[in-house]
Amino acid sequence: MSLRTTLLQATAIAVLPLAAHAGDISFSPVPFAKDDAAKRQAIASDTVTIDGKDYKIGYHVMARSGDKIGDNTFALLTDKDGNPVKSADGSEHISDSADFTSLLRQGDKLYSVTHFESRPGAMYLSEVSQDADGNLKLVSTKPIDFSEYHGLWVPCAGSVTPWETHLGSEEYPADARAIEAATSLDEIDDYDFPMVRYAGVNPEGMSLEQFRDAYKPYRYGYPTEITVSEDGSAKADKHFAMGRVAVELAYVMPDQKTAYISDDGTNVGLFRFEADTAGDLSAGTLYAAKWNQTSAENGGAADLEWVDLGHADDATIQKAIEAGTQFSDLFETAEMGEDGSCADGFSASNAEGNPECLKVKDGMDAIASRLETRRYASMKGATTEFRKMEGITYDADKHQMYLSMSAVEKGMEDGAKQDLGGMNAIKLPKNKCGTVYSLSLDDKFTATKMMGLISGKPLTEEHKVKAQDASCDPAHDMCGDTAELNSCDINGIANPDNITYIPGYNTLIIGEDTGSGHQNDAIWAMNTDTKELTRILSTPYGSETTSTYWYPNVNGHGYLMAVIQHPYGESDEDKLTDPAQARAYVGYVGPFPQMDATAKTQ
Question: Of 90, 173, 277, 490, which alpha carbon lies 20 to 30 A from 455's?
Fold first, then answer.
């Protein structure tokens, strides 16, 4: 019997619905950070009440970027040969962009995989100690080898599979059409340039030929899976069969075959992958959602259809990539009319807001569907109008899925310029503060309907005028500088990003990735029945909350993972007084008591 089969059997009970337990949970609220001292801290709820009993919790840091742990430096970027990657100033590059951090049990040992949203990206495997009170500490760490895949690109959010592997991501893949057509480096987005450091190339002063030799765009933009063994070894896989988009994360449903893939950016899509075999993501059929709108109220609602993008397997797609497949091998192109029309035989695409007329070359559909997934989906009639699609989680109590959209704007607005070449399927009022959606699932875990669950509340000019009025009541209103520094209501969410669900307690956890929406990003607990929100973590200036993920039972304790990415890095850079303050925090809220008697992870 294989290790994977054993894990599937061992964790099968973890996917059973937990709705039989309808418990109560409430967190002590964290106040909105109003003064400079509070705005510099990570402050979490200090107590949680579960089924009438109080427990002490808090925010606990397991590691920060640059920490020496065992024999290695946590968050140091390395190249294909394992050598430190250098920053422009010649220093070793320590990433402040920690993102998803998993907890994985293997035999008697506990491990954690942390990935860093950089170029090149990095993943670190750490062994974790756990004391009798549930406190966690990293005792050793080492980078995971991605040289088989020519490196890792911008890993963002992630999840843990039902068979207990780390499922990561690669966000914002480069435009292969633009790179192929370029006659100079000036015609290529310089966001792509730092990746060449993985191949040992210095991006400063490189030629176009050196860039192209070091960086093949179709190698990046896929879900990644890390399998950890009890001996502390880790095996990395890229799942080319699941398609190439700006992967925020892939999330596997309890049937161990259905995975949803969120796509971050402008004019992006929602994707569903159906694996051929439970517990094996290396081959399957990919689908893209089509939004058939039924309402524009409260974030909007729609019936969902699923457009079949065909079947593929990892090996076939990787072979095509390494054979040097380029954009021109996949598509013919034609000019688009001013009205968005295409010549006979060509199909329109508005993926990423770029209006194009494309035709797949004979015999290239399967490869095109995985290397240019968003373009291909748009051509086939799927909806590529979503904006800033982020976190995914499953609610076993109600058998539904939640999906966060950090902002409802651009292609999601009616008649936006990004609709040229598309169908203008999504016609919603702009909401720069974002919305979390609920998706109804059928008995095969296929999403059939999508509707707004909770939205952020943008401040209007009327609010800002009132904020300066002498009659403004700070006990109830946003007054003075608070209104100037926060463009979304501080008593609600702003730009929802990573989300997770606490089964049996009707509680959705919502993390923020906001710049101007809230000056200090927060994590919230929301009762899915009453929509009541409680702020449970406030983060330092310029941070993003990442890795919001719930573990109900890790050796008898529960944990809410919570990573604080790039402090002072997205705003308020002028507030930084010590470079050490800018290091990322990898930690958790807890420890909680065991919250489920059977599940290993959810």
Answer: 173
Radius of gyration of the chain (CA): 23
* Banded pLDDT at 1 (limits 50, 70, 90): very low
Longest dimension (CA), the chain: 73
Distance CA 45, CA 59 (A): 8
Instruction: Look up residue 596 and give its two tokens.
Output: 């489920």
Query: Residue range 231-255: average pLDDT?
Result: 98
Q: If we measure between CA atoms, which residue out of 325, 294, 502, 520 comes closest to residue 397?
A: 502
Q: What is the pLDDT of residue 21?
A: 62
What letter represents residue 264's amino acid? D
Q: Given CA atoms 370, 371, 375, 379 in this order, what sign does their dihedral have? A: negative
Residue 225: phi and psi, rounded to 5, are: -125, 135
| Region class of 217: left (phi > 0), else alpha (psi between -120 and 50), else beta | alpha
Residue 302: count other Cβ atoms within 10 Å of its Cβ: 21
pLDDT band for 68, please (50, 70, 90 cuts). very high
- For residue 143, give Cα distances in angstroms to 87, 146, 237: 18, 9, 15
DSSP 539-594: --TT-EEEEEEEEEEETTEEEEEEEEESTTSSS-GGG--SGGGGS-EEEEEEEEEP
Residue 527, token pair as written in the block: 């009762």
Mean pLDDT throughout 85-110? 96
Residue 288: count other Cβ atoms within 10 Å of its Cβ.
28
If DSSP codes are grouped into helix, strand and coil, which group holds residue 122? strand
| DSSP H/E element including 512 | strand 507-512
- The first and second tokens of residue 459, run together, are 């401040």
Give the position of tokens 């400063």. 204
Contact residues for 34 (Cβ-Cβ < 8 A; gap 6+): 482
H or E element that contains 143: strand 136-143
Phi then psi for residue 212, to 5 deg, are: -65, -35
CB 340 within 8 A of CB 348: yes
Identify any residues that bridge with 507 across adjacent strands, giving them in sequence order.
Answer: 502, 527
> 494: which residues sit within 8 A by CB, 6+ positions away?
433, 434, 456, 486, 487, 488, 512, 514, 517, 518, 521
Question: Do the Cβ atoms of 437 and 453 come closer than 8 Å?
Answer: yes
Which distant-in-sequence residues (6+ apart) come within 8 Å of 286 by Cβ?
A: 241, 242, 243, 271, 272, 273, 274, 309, 310, 311, 312, 369, 370, 373
Token digits of residue 538: 């406030």
Q: What are phi and psi for residue 393, nearest 5 degrees?
A: -155, 160
> If pLDDT is split at 50, 70 and 90, which confidence band does 500 have?
very high
CB 392 within 8 A of CB 262: yes
C-alpha triplet 521, 523, 527: angle, nearest 5° = 140
As a whole number of Å, the end-to-end CA separation of the chain is 25
What is the phi/psi pair of residue 80, to 5°?
-60, -25
Find the helix or strand (DSSP H, E) in which 414 lies: none
